Amino acid sequence: SEGGLFLMNSRTLSPFDVQSSDLEYPDLGEVKNVLEDGFRVKEFNFTELAKEAGSARMVGIVMLGALSSIKDINIDEQAFLTVIEEEFSEEKADKNIEAFKLGRDYF
Description:
Blueprint: E1 5-9, H1 16-19, H2 28-35, E2 40-44, H3 46-53, H4 59-68, H5 77-87, H6 90-106
Parallel strand pairs: 1-2
Helix pairs in contact: 3-4, 3-6, 4-6, 5-6
């Protein structure tokens, strides 16, 4: 919604069809400028936090952790943790919880 928060990873990952053709991925600065017309934009290299948690592939869960720390979101942290524990095996849940908390603690 207007004035809402948009979390933006400063590390771009071009889709396969862009990587394998002459298509161009939009400039990150241009994307941010367009978004700032209607949103509060928080840009950060979430991929680096994901790497700290063990894998760049965990970027989504890191961003979810960051999003969960925003006061406008009225969802208790434990609700997120419970879903992570239910959806992943014990080993993967532990790593995903670590990634979630890194994102949450950053913001």
